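User: I've been trying to design a sequence by hand for this structure and keep getting stuck. Would you show me what you'd pick, starting by listing the structure so we're on the same page?

Assistant: Good idea, let's start from the same input. This is the structure you sent:
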């Protein structure tokens, strides 16, 4: 019997598709109208905080299992999670060495897994307060610890340098900026994923947040530094809207074919991420193949279709992805269906 949550896998599928779209846009940048580029920018902004939220929800569900409630079980789980974080960080470093135009997020997610352990055992009332505190304080903390002058491109330098970038100093991604989303995900796991009414409220909060962000933009309150308060409001609005709509659809409509397709992509999210980086690198190294607007657009569409199609076929025929299986083997974890 399956123990996976289709709606949650579908949200993860949305996140991975959003990230792949963001990474293929450079092929078609000259062919896309301004409006389409703006939409692509919003999709790009959605991906990493949505991953942070889904990671928090998944961690929250895992830590609710009876075997992880005892001190000994909790310690074993923390060790397993930390080992998985190390493997994901190492995968990120390997992908960064490929040298594509992609700012690799895996190192940041690895650090986030470890930081997230601070939240998984908190009592729900304390966790609720911690979520609010995290959203209020993290923009100021990241701005203080890593002002613009010391920010560095993610995925460059030694292990220690990449740890610092992943924690706080990365130009594109930082674990400290994603930590509030992880904590919120843990809280959502406690509140119940099957509650369609909760998903409705989250989607509505996301739409209200989007309206507030647009109003602030209109009056000149704009993002000055990645991870500041306007940027965080923008990301939170996108994440709540996407998560709320998908979970609301899952709650009211059940497991439809479209939802199952997104869920299949979510099951293979790590394999999709690892696999699409060298594919984009190989295509980018052949600029003659996408030198015109038409061929650039075709290249972007072909890569997206190839990645999604391969993942769907793999999940249907073979189940869990190869990278997920390898990580589970290395960390001693049992994959669940």
């Amino acid at each position: 019997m399956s123990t996976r949550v289709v709606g949650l896998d579908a949200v993860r599928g949305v996140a991975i598709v959003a990230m792949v779209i963001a990474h293929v846009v450079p092929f078609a940048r000259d062919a896309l109208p301004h409006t389409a580029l703006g939409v692509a920018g919003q999709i790009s902004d959605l991906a990493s905080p949505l991953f942070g939220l889904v990671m928090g929800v998944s961690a929250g569900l895992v830590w609710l299992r009876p075997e992880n409630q005892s001190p000994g079980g909790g310690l074993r789980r923390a060790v397993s999670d930390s080992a998985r974080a190390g493997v994901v960080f190492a995968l990120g470093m390997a992908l960064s060495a490929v040298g594509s135009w992609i700012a690799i997020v895996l190192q940041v997610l690895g650090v986030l897994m470890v930081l997230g352990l601070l939240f998984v055992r908190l009592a729900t009332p304390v966790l609720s307060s911690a979520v609010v505190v995290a959203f209020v304080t993290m923009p100021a903390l990241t701005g203080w610890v890593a002002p613009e002058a010391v920010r560095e491109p993610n995925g460059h330098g030694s292990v220690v340098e990449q740890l610092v970038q992943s924690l706080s100093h990365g130009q594109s991604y930082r674990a400290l900026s994603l930590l509030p989303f992880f904590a919120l995900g843990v809280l959502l796991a406690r509140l119940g994923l099957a509650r369609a009414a909760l998903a409705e409220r989250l989607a509505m909060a996301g739409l209200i947040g989007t309206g507030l962000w647009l109003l602030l933009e209109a009056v000149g309150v704009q993002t000055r530094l990645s991870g500041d308060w306007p940027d965080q409001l923008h990301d939170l609005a996108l994440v709540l809207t996407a998560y709320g709509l998908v979970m609301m659809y899952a709650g009211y409509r059940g497991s439809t074919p479209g939802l199952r397709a997104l869920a299949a992509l979510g099951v293979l999210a790590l394999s999709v991420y690892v696999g699409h980086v060298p594919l984009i690198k190989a295509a980018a190294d052949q600029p003659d193949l996408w030198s015109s607007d038409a061929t650039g657009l075709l290249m972007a569409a072909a890569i997206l279709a190839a990645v999604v199609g391969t993942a769907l076929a793999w999940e249907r025929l073979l189940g869990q992805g190869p990278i997920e299986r390898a990580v589970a083997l290395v960390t001693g974890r049992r994959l669940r269906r």
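That's my pick for every position. To get oriented when you compare it with your attempt: The chain has a mean pLDDT of 93. The radius of gyration is 19 Å.
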